[in-house]
Design brief:
Keywords: ATP-binding, Nucleotide-binding, Transport. By secondary structure, the protein is of the alpha/beta class. It is built from ten helices and 13 strands. β6, α6 and β7 form a beta-alpha-beta unit. Bound molecules: adenosine-5'-triphosphate (ATP).
Length: 299
């Protein structure tokens, strides 16, 4: 697997504020990564360091297995880390042409990138007529003009309405499906869950977890159960089962949290043999939100 970016023991202090604390992780080609953390956890600072706009205090980072200097590597990176400045009285196409001229890149990809972000029909409209969501989509088009290996976005849906958020997330998924690696910073669990395959969870600059979103905890999940009669017997049998860590109640539903793997049919058949007939049985994984809270609490 090709490593696009590698961070090793990266550290950044702003005076007494330890914004990034000994942070290490790798970004592999073709995945969608989220840096997830609450406000002030060091996400923007981390992105600033790898894009050479913030100086690190210590530690290392290397692009493309260290084969290229950071300056050369950044030509293969598309990034939006601030609200971009476009000219309000120029059209979408005119703005993108100007960016191509400034960056010294060919303007032949402008139409293709406008199509990617669903702005082709509005290509000749002035920037000042665009909604916030359209402005953000034009920014993404501008970051794609050089066909980057990796697209970096800082809080890409901040300030947008639900429709705008949905559009941006769809576009990110579309870009990822063409093989472009993506790294986005977000404080929204929901966003990372919907868009990313991998996540680096940070709090106060410290990494709490990095890995696949769907393997964020080793939790075995839980069962929701209900019986029409003799609930006391159900509780008793569940408490005796070796794969069950704890038994609690939420309204009229019994929750059995697992400490080992157990399928719904195994659970059903175990209880049936004990003479217990269930009226409700659902197996659930804890939500990402719960997993995130568990991680931050445990650390
Ligand atoms: N230029 C700066 N000077 C001093 N402190 C800074 C500076 N930039 C960031 N910080 C501090 O570093 C910490 C991390 O900030 P950073 O912006 O990287 O976090 P973040 O996770 O991106 O948060 P947000 O989503 O709110 O931008 C915060 O405590 C912040 O106040």
């Amino acid at each position: 697997m090709e490593t696009i970016l590698s961070l090793k023991n990266l550290d950044k202090k702003y005076g007494a504020v330890h914004a990034v604390n000994n942070l290490s992780f790798d970004i592999q080609k073709g995945n969608v990564y989220g840096i997830l953390g609450p406000n002030g956890s060091g996400k923007s600072t981390t992105l600033g360091i790898i894009l050479n706009v913030v100086n690190r205090t210590s530690g290392e980072f290397s692009w493309f297995d260290g084969k290229l200097s950071t300056h050369e590597a950044l030509k293969k990176v598309g990034a939006i880390i601030e609200r971009p400045n476009f000219y309000p009285y120029m059209t979408a196409v005119q703005n993108l042409k100007l960016i191509c001229t400034i960056k010294g890149i060919s303007s032949e990809k402008i139409d293709e990138k406008l199509k990617t972000v669903n702005l082709y029909d509005r290509r000749d409209s002035k920037f000042k007529t665009f909604s916030l969501g359209m402005k953000q989509r034009l920014a993404i088009a501008s970051a794609l003009l050089n066909d980057p290996e990796i697209l970096i976005l800082d809080e890409p849906t901040n300030g947008l309405d639900p429709q705008g958020i949905h559009e941006i997330r769809q576009i990110i998924q579309k870009i990822a499906s063409t093989g472009t690696t993506i790294l986005l910073a977000s404080h929204l669990l929901d966003e990372v869950e919907k868009v990313c395959s991998h996540v680096v969870v940070i709090r106060k600059g410290i990494k709490l977890y990095s890995g696949r979103v769907d393997e964020m905890t080793t939790s075995n999940g839980l069962f929701e159960l209900k019986v029409e009669e003799n609930e006391a017997n159900l509780l008793l049998e569940l408490e005796k089962h070796p794969s069950i860590l704890k038994v609690t109640k939420e309204h009229d539903i019994v929750i059995a949290t697992l400490n080992d793997t157990l399928t719904a049919s195994e659970m059903n058949s175990f209880l049936f043999k004990k003479g217990i007939v269930l009226s409700h049985l659902v197996k659930r994984k804890p939500s990402l939100e719960q997993q995130f809270l568990d991680l931050t609490n445990n650390n």
